[in-house]
């Protein structure tokens, strides 16, 4: 299996493969986490620095109540849907390229 | 004694259905494997319903509504973070953990660091968080039974519910539990949503109810006028008792919950705001990271067939519980307008029972409708603390039977002996939980659960996060960080609990009253304990680099490479020949 003809990035036992795999996964996870964390940091900040804006009424709710108690849930669903789609695609691509290169060598 | 027949019937049906399902599934789970992880063959839909059913505890069903009623906007962080914390679990932990494949978190700890010692350390935290989380469930049980049977002492409810679940777990194991949990999610969803829709149809929708909380409140001294309006049907709100927070503080951020330390110190509203902001952030960290470190939730990811299914399951869990969490705050808001009498009472008679009591006011409009709706929410409350308690008991029992008995005490025991041990330890764990339940009658349900999250966030979360993503972490680093972070945050939380409740800690209470910053940081320790745990893990791992497992690259591959490549089998073979 481990013949020099194989691209080191496609040999699962090489350092390069693992490094690239983890880096790609981590980059995706961090991008999604950042979107979520920014929202979590921003809402208390807005409450703190713009109390008038956040206490405006929408459908009876204050703006900040509406954002936190209603809109926050769908926001997180969208992030997780995006993440799952991308991470499954990433895994399948990775598995396919390794298997293809294995067949080429044999 | 004035027992409502509808409420009794619905509650009794829930209990009987739970017991029956336990017995029914006991016939189907025969092997030791079934008992621990349900044969690893649970589909995404079942598993997502079961995880959600297990997760929605007495705190979610009763505590959130009660806390929104008593504290207003600030309490909204609890339901939102309970639901959204799953995102961290999904992004960083669910997939790798499932690929690594182990029965429990201690299995993972041992396998990841090749260290049986670390297993023992990790087991203590399963038990610790498990029992901490169990206490509020017991309080929910005691409160609900005291509502159904007025006059019944608190401890009787704790004993009754504790005994039923212990029996169920001892007979059915995890396979039974998966089925019961999934059923109970849908029961809870039904029980929280239907009464809300009926109440909103009669008294006005969610936004309208929040909208009633403008600054023009009928104050306590104008009560007769307001009462007259109320009975003539003009006023949609009842007057607030003196103990209730005023509208302006209740509806705005940084209200009664987060300003408490600053208020105790006598600071003005303006001076107290920075402490409230700090409190809010620390609470968010505890809840979001704590979800990703709860042992009784994590163990369920092993019942997924593979990492992809684990991710899909998490996504569905987020949707199922997110929809659920829209409803409890509605009860809190409506309770403030329609049943403010509860503000005047405390403990088991206070706002914690708003979900049970509120639907009953419908009786005034349509006879019996209120009793039926209240019966439905009581059934939901039973489902809530029964399912969470059984999940906790399975993971506590699993830790005792699988880790302490099967690995440490009697490593050569037969599968049959381990099954017997599982049943025995289920009874031991159940009895301990009941005894602990007696102690917490005067604590708020939701706050107790929030603290269990804080301990998980400062011990398991950094452990799981760094061991899946950082290959240079060592056993010593991980263990030190987990122990120091977890124990210090526990000590800080316990100090505020004692200061508030115990007579001998009056000196501490006075000291906290003079030091609002320290009080805030002690009540919500996640903001300093989580970074501390991570820094300790980084530094000590750097100092002990020689003890990084020799096959670390292979371990990381198993954690991260797609399962299709079959690296897991290779790893097992190498591991068996190498050691």
Explain how this protein is built.
- The complex is a heterodimer of chains A (106) and B (579).
- With 106 residues, chain A is mainly alpha-helical.
- Chain A has one domain.
- Chain A has three helices and two strands, in the order H-H-E-E-H.
- Chain A has a two-stranded antiparallel ribbon.
- With 579 residues, chain B is mainly α.
- Chain B has one domain: Sodium/glucose cotransporter, CATH 1.20.1730.
- The radius of gyration of chain B is 24 Å and the shape is globular.
- Chains A and B meet through helix 1, strand 1, strand 2 and helix 3 of A and helix 5, helix 6, helix 10, helix 14 and helix 16 of B.
Give a brief rundown of this model.
The complex is a heterodimer of chains A (106) and B (579). Chain A is mainly alpha-helical and 106 residues long. Chain A has one domain (8-105).
Give structural attributes.
heterodimer; A: 106 residues; mainly alpha; two-stranded antiparallel ribbon; 3 helices; 2 strands; 4% strand; elongated; B: 579 residues; Sodium/glucose cotransporter; 75% helix; globular
């Amino acid at each position: 299996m481990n013949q020099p003809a194989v691209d080191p990035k496609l040999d699962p036992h090489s350092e390069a493969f693992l490094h690239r795999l983890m880096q790609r996964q981590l980059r995706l996870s961090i991008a999604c986490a950042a979107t979520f964390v920014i929202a979590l940091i921003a809402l208390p900040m807005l409450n703190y620095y713009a109390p008038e804006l956040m206490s405006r009424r929408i459908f009876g709710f204050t703006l900040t109540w509406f954002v936190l108690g209603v809109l926050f849930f769908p926001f997180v669903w969208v992030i997780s849907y995006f993440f799952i789609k991308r991470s499954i695609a990433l895994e399948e691509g990775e598995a396919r390229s390794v298997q293809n290169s294995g067949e080429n060598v044999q | 004694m004035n027992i409502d027949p509808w409420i009794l019937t619905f509650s009794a049906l829930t209990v009987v259905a739970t017991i029956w399902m336990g017995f029914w599934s006991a016939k189907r789970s025969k092997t030791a494997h079934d008992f621990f992880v349900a044969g690893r063959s649970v589909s995404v839909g079942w598993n997502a319903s079961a995880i959600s059913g297990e997760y929605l505890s007495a705190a979610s069903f009763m505590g959130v509504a009660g806390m929104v009623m008593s504290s207003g906007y600030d309490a909204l962080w609890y339901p939102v973070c309970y639901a959204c914390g799953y995102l961290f679990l999904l992004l960083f932990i669910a997939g790798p953990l499932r690929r690594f494949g182990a029965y429990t978190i201690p299995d993972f700890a041992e396998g990841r660091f090749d260290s049986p010692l670390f297993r023992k350390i990790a087991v203590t935290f399963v038990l610790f968080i498990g029992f901490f989380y169990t206490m509020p469930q017991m309080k929910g049980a005691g409160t609900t039974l005291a509502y159904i049977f007025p006059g019944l002492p608190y401890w009787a409810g704790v004993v009754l519910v504790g005994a039923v679940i212990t029996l169920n777990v001892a007979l059915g194991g995890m396979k039974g539990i998966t089925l019961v949990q999934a059923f109970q999610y849908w029961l809870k969803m039904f029980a929280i949503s239907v009464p809300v829709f009926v109440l909103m149809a009669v008294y006005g929708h969610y936004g309208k109810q929040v909208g009633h909380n403008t600054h023009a409140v009928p104050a306590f001294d104008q009560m007769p006028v307001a009462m007259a309006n109320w009975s003539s049907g003009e006023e949609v709100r009842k007057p607030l008792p003196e103990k209730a927070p005023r509208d302006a503080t209740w509806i705005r951020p940084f209200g009664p919950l987060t300003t408490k330390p600053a208020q105790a110190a006598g600071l003005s509203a303006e001076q107290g705001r920075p402490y409230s902001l700090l409190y809010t952030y620390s609470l968010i960290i505890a809840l979001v990271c704590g979800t990703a470190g709860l042992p009784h939730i994590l163990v369920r990811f092993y019942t997924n067939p593979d990492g992809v299914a684990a991710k899909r399951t998490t996504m569905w869990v987020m949707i199922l519980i997110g929809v659920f969490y829209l409803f409890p705050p509605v009860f809190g808001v409506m309770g403030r307008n329609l049943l403010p009498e509860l503000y005047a009472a405390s403990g088991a008679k206070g706002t914690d029972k708003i979900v049970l009591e509120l639907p009953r006011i419908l009786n005034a409009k349509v006879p019996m409708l209120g009793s039926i709706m209240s019966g439905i929410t009581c059934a939901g409350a039973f489902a809530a603390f029964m399912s969470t308690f059984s999940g906790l008991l399975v993971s506590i029992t699993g830790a005792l039977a699988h880790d302490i008995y099967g690995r440490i005490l009697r490593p050569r025991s037969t599968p049959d002996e381990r099954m017997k041990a599982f049943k025995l330890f289920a009874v031991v764990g159940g009895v301990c939980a009941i005894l602990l339940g007696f102690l917490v009658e005067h604590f708020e349900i939701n706050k107790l659960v929030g603290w269990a999250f804080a301990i998980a966030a400062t011990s398991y979360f950094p452990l799981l996060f760094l061991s899946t993503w950082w290959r240079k972490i060592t056993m010593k680093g991980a263990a030190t960080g987990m122990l120091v972070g977890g124990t210090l945050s526990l000590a800080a939380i316990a100090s505020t609990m004692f200061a508030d409740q115990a007579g001998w800690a009056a000196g501490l209470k006075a000291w906290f009253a003079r030091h609002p910053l320290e009080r805030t940081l002690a009540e919500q320790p996640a903001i300093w304990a989580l970074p501390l745990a991570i820094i300790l893990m980084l530094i000590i791992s750097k100092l002990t680099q020689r003890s990084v497992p020799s096959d670390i690259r292979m371990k990381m591959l198993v954690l991260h490479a797609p399962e299709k490549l079959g690296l897991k089998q290779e790893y097992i073979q190498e591991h068996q020949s190498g050691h």
